[in-house]
Every structure is written in structure tokens, then in C-alpha cells.
Amino acid sequence: MRTARRLALPARTVRVRFTALYGVLFLLSGAALLVITNLVSLGSTRISEVAPGGGPPARNSTLAAAHERISLLESQLAGARESQSHQLLVGSAVALAVMALVSIVLGRIIAGRVLRPLRTITAATRRISADNLHERLAVPGPADEVKDLADTIDELLERLESSFAAQRRFVANASHELRTPLATMRASLDVAVAKPEPVPPQTVALADRLRIELDQVDRLLEGFLLLARTQHGAMSDRSTISLGRTVRAALDARAADIAARRLTVHDGDLHDDTWTQGSATLLSRMADNVIDNAITHNDEGGWITVATTTDGTTALLVVETGGRLLDQEQVARLAQPFQRLGADRTGSGDGSGLGLSIVAAIATAHGGGLDLAARPEGGLRVAISLPLAAARTGVPA
């Protein structure tokens, strides 16, 4: 019963409420008009029943016949009056029913005309996203409440566009500016270690440690740039890509890492004929991040299952790993930047916390999505959905 009630709630639109309001107003106006008409009709009937004042009563032999004639006329008049009242009542009921139907139709038409500008604004607002914030509603018409609403939304879009642009410039400029001191620091380390005189072992160990940290900062900056480009940048290298071949290339490039951790890869369901359309660079990075995540956050000697499937108009990439039981609430937050399950998951604290957030941003930029789920048996399931594209003829992707 609750389910049926929830299903009925979306039907309560503003147009339905306006239709009911206008319909009730029209119906009440029609009912008031019929009541006034009936009262006027009954008043005139009562007036016509009043007998005019006459002269002295008749005193002849036909008095009894006259009284009998009057009684007959009064009974006929009462019947005619009753018939007239019945016809008036029936006519009023029919008129009220017709008025009710007309009120609903007129109410729906008027509500539709009143809400038409709002529907136009809603449709235009839905078409505007982070990728086309330069578009505006630009609703024409007189300076009324609807025009004020549209102008306010346009001003909000203008502020959002400026904010997004400032954010992109800041991330790009900061990342580029930070690369120069990092390169200087790395060069200084190399010079310090390469001196002719013997270098103390502590200095060599410290230099190696600093190089590792500098490499981590480089990866973090690269992740910032890629995340900013994916979320707010335009894709100029769109082409038809084989999702299976892209993932297989990522696996082949990490064969040494997989062997080092003694992982078993099950890729029997990785099909090369699963096609999608998008940026080859970004989709390759998406596959790299997913495979890196499966390798890094895995048990020593564990397993990885990789599969690609199609479902109607969707290409699906699924990567599963084994391991201990995970909390679904924490897993769902992994698509956000700098979210980790912690070093206790694998015994390692590697990673910048941007890998799966970049995957989610790339999937969203291509019209797809990322779904993260904790497996009931333990481990993680990563499912990426992308729009399915027709197979490309020619050189394989």
C-alpha cells in the first residue's frame, strides 16, 4: 500500500494542482449563478400566485360553482408549479455537471498556459551542465515574475561559469608552477649525490627517500591536471575505441607488477568487440587506474577478474578483486578525491587517493558512470558503464 502511495506522489504536479484550483473556482462560480437563477425564478413564481384584490364577493346562485372552479384551477396551478420546479432542478443538475466538466477542461488549459514558460525554463536548465555553462536561458517576454526568474537563473549560470573557469585556471597554474621547484629539488639531489668525494650513506638514503616523495608529488600534480581536464575540459581526440583491447593493453603493461605480487588474472570474458566512443587518452588512463587499483589494493597471491559485456546501449567493464570484507559506505566514497580505505586494507599506504575519482570523472565525461560495490564474499567490484558504439572498421583500437 505504501508502494502504491509513493508511485502516486509524482502525479501531483503543479499543473494538476492548478487544474483543481481553477476547476473548483469555475465550478463554484457556475453553482452560484444557478442558485441565483433559481432564487429569482422562485420569487417571480410566488409573486404570480398572489391574487389581486377585488370588489365585494359575488352573491348569486353560481357561488358554489365558482368555488369549485377555483379549486380546480388551484390544483392545476400547483401541478404546473411542481412540474416546473422539477424541470428547473433537473436542468440545474445537468448544467452543473456540464459546468464541472467545462471547468476541469478550462482549468487544465489555463494551467498549461500559465506553466508553459516554467516548462521552457526547466527544459533549458536541464540541457545546461558543467560542459556548456556558457549557454543562457534568454527567455523573452514582458518583465514579469517568470522573466525575473529566468534572468536570475542566467545570472547564477554566469557566476558558476566564472567560478568553474577560475577553478580550472588555478589548478592548471598551480600544478604547472609547482613542477619547476620540484624539478629544481630533484636536480639538486642529483648534484649532491654525484659529487666526486665520497657521499655518506645517510645522505644517499635521504636522497632516495626524497626522490620517492618527489615522484609521489609529481603523480599527485598529474592527477590534479587530469582531473581538472576531465571534469571541465573538452575532448578533442574522440574516436571509436575497443574497451576490451584498451584494458588488455593496461594488463600487458603491468605484467611485471602482477607477477611480482603473484596475482592470478582471469580475463576469459574480456571481449575485444566491446566498443565505445570517446577520448583514447582518457579511456586508456581510466583502464590504467582501474588495473592499478586492482593490483595495489589486493592480497599477496590474490586474483583479479576482468570482463567486458554489452547491455542494450551500454558497454560495461567489470573488474573484481578478492580480499577481506569491506564496508559498503566506505567503498561508496572511494569515487571522491583523496578517499582511501586505509593502509590496513593491503598493508600499503601507496597511492594519491585520486585514482578512482579520476575513473569516475572520465566515465561521467563520456556519458557513463562508475559503480563501486563491496563483494559479499570479500573484496571489491568496480563496474564502469559507457555508451555503446558501433564496431569500427579498419585499424584496431
UniProtKB/TrEMBL annotation:
Annotated catalysed reactions: ATP + protein L-histidine = ADP + protein N-phospho-L-histidine
Pfam families xrefs: HAMP (PF00672), HATPase_c (PF02518), HisKA (PF00512)
Subcellular location: Cell membrane
Residue ranges occupied by any HAMP domain in the UniProt entry: 112-165
Taxonomic superkingdom: Bacteria
Keywords: Kinase, Membrane, Phosphoprotein, Transferase, Transmembrane, Transmembrane helix, Two-component regulatory system
InterPro entries assigned: HAMP_dom, HATPase_C_sf, HATPase_dom, His_kinase_dom, HisK_dim/P_dom, HisK_dim/P_sf, Sig_transdc_His_kin-like_C, TCS_sensor_his_kinase
Stored Gene3D superfamilies: 1.10.287.130, 6.10.340.10, Histidine kinase-like ATPase, C-terminal domain (3.30.565.10)
CDD domains documented for this protein: HAMP, HATPase, HisKA
Main location: membrane
Transmembrane segments: 20-40, 88-111
EC number(s) on file: 2.7.13.3
GO molecular function, one term: phosphorelay sensor kinase activity
Sequence ranges assigned to domain Histidine kinase in this UniProt record: 173-390
GO CC, alphabetical: plasma membrane
Protein name in UniProt: histidine kinase
